[in-house]
Amino acid sequence: MFVAVCFVGGNMAGTVEASNSDQAIGESGRADVIVNDGKFDNPATESVLITPLSGQLDRGAADKAAADVAAAMKALPEVASVSDPLPSHDGGALLVRVTMSGDPETAQERVGKLLDATAGVQKAHPELRVEETGGESIGQAMDDTLGKDFQRAEFLSLPVTFAILIVAFGALIAAGVPVLLALMSVAAALGLSTLASHLVPSTDTTASVILLIGMAVGVDYSLFYLRREREERAKGRNHLDAVEIAAETSGHAVVVSGIAVTIAMAGLFLAGDVVFSSLAVGSILVVLVSVIGSLTVLPALLSKLGRWIDRPRVPVLWRLTRPRAAAEGQSRVWSFILRPALRKPAITLTVSVLALLALAAPALTMRLSFPGMEDLPRTTPAMQAYDRLVKAYPSNGTVHTVAVRVPAGQLDATKAALAELANRAAADPLFAPLDEAPDIEVSADGTVAVLDVATPFAGRSEQAKESLTRLREVMVPQTVGKVAGTDAAVGGFVGADVDYADHVKHKLPLVVGFVLVLTFLVMAFTFRSVVVAVTSIGLNLLSAGASYGLVVLIFQGTWAEGILGFKSMDAVVSWLPLFLFVVLFGLSMDYHVFVVSRIREAVKQGMSTRDAVAHGITGSAGVVTSAAIVMVAVFSIFATLSTVDMKQLGVGLAAAILLDATIIRAVVLPSLMTMLGNANWWAPRFMRRREVPPAPPAHERELVGAGR
């Protein structure tokens, strides 16, 4: 009922999308706001490029092809106007610009007719290359490519998750329950997020993040419960008692984990960016719904199903995974894995931490940038045509947008200043020469003027950034800046790239500090231990740092291009470090809270810290391994997508979860807790409960004192 009400109610309320002004960051954001305030009529435009297949361009044949292009386009209702053919500076190409009619927001849906017309002209002129490119045709091609990518990802993620859970439980119902509850949480959160968008505007990435986070935590929380309930039944308890014990232990871990994940996601609000704010809202909602479901629906379902949860059984897998009366901690594999950490904790800790720090070291050279046109897959005809267009007409490539608020009575002076700016830029090698007279757009009310200034260099190149600096610090102040009362800003891709990278670098320490402080408080009061809180934060920082290092190592170089199928952008996507940190910090807490809860539980029962560590880690190994395999598998699917930002996100998340579930939980955590011994549970007097963990045996105190 709750899920249905949320989903239906949310759809009825509708979604409030973030506007350009909501997403304005830095000077480039201010330029976007100025342009939007001008309310320009910006119709969609396409470019038809005519070039030779080889050798020199036959101008007569090219003119005939251009005339055929104009005739074919003018016959279409989707076309408003067609320009005269424009030759390139070297005479090697001919360009025909086509302005589309109708709403530019829906132009991409109608560009197919133009592409068909271009293909018809190409067929009639096989001696030439006649091809179309532009924002709409590129958008359509990329939507087709990315749409197939995401369909494949969605098609694979659920079956892969279900298959892994079948292997983990050996029973179909037990495998289906986590997937069902995760999907219900996602559905409810999607509905709630549309309601929340009336307070915090939503972006087009919110739904994807809800699905990503919802499947991860939903499956995790259900796994915690199911594993513990099965374990208690294997000890001879009836199913109701087993469910109650699971609720008291794993349920408590779920609540703490949910709070920790919520705190991590809430840190995104401090970024001062509507994109991160909408992601925070979606993530927090799906986590809270998952926690509520784990505390209500899941135990009720387990109580109702009883032993039917283990039906129908998969014959071979059931024998391997069925719960046994013997403690799970007796696994020979995990006993072998933990042996170095338990016997030589100081040496094991030092070696493992140094290895993780070495893996994190490349993060010190991290460079941030937006993906640009040069990073899109070149497998589509529209992108191949774009490359030839920019080569023949450099002014159609990377463009800086100079936006000016014009004070009353200063329109002529402003236009003259912008014309002077365009001519100065055309004479500067950092900028592209003019293909035609400067096109200064003025709003209908005369209060906004806009000029595009092109550079022949790729958007992320140092030359493009240098041209931005020269515009902002020299050319604009010396021209437009001399017109009294004007308010000018330089935007465009390069400006947005530079401004957003600076924004993330400025906000990241604030977000990290917020998450660390609040996570420390939650962990300290949950486990009544300052040491556990500090070590929890330290281990998660190690995991995040190693993940950053891997992303830099893979994507800022070229050695992995052939393996993962990408073209290196020599940088990390600007939004990734901040988003990756909060997601990893939140998801890592799932495992950490669950494992440390098991260790704490064993200590309360009178075990020595060393024995408790062995018992807690081996006892939780099955659920942590299963949950980690699910998340690594799902995140790895994202690494197969076409765009470099999705590849970086998939690799970063998968690598961090893998490191967290293996090196951190199986090596660093046990060696650290074994070395600290009873000091793990130290806390100020006001935080202590009545029950204090018993002092370790004499032999353990001697080992700790000897630093072994």
TrEMBL record:
- Membrane topology, as annotated: Multi-pass membrane protein
The residues covered by the Membrane transport protein MMPL domain are: 37-346, 376-685
Q: By its UniProt entry, which InterPro entries does this protein fall under?
A: MMPL_dom (IPR004869), Mycobact_MmpL (IPR050545)
Principal location:
membrane
Instruction: Reply yes or no: does the keyword Transmembrane helix apply.
Output: yes
Keyword annotations from UniProtKB, A to Z: Cell membrane, Membrane, Transmembrane, Transmembrane helix
Domain of life per record: Bacteria
Q: Where in the cell is it found?
A: Cell membrane
NAD as a keyword of this entry, yes or no, is no
What name does this protein carry? Answer: MMPL family transporter
The organism encoding this protein is Dactylosporangium cerinum
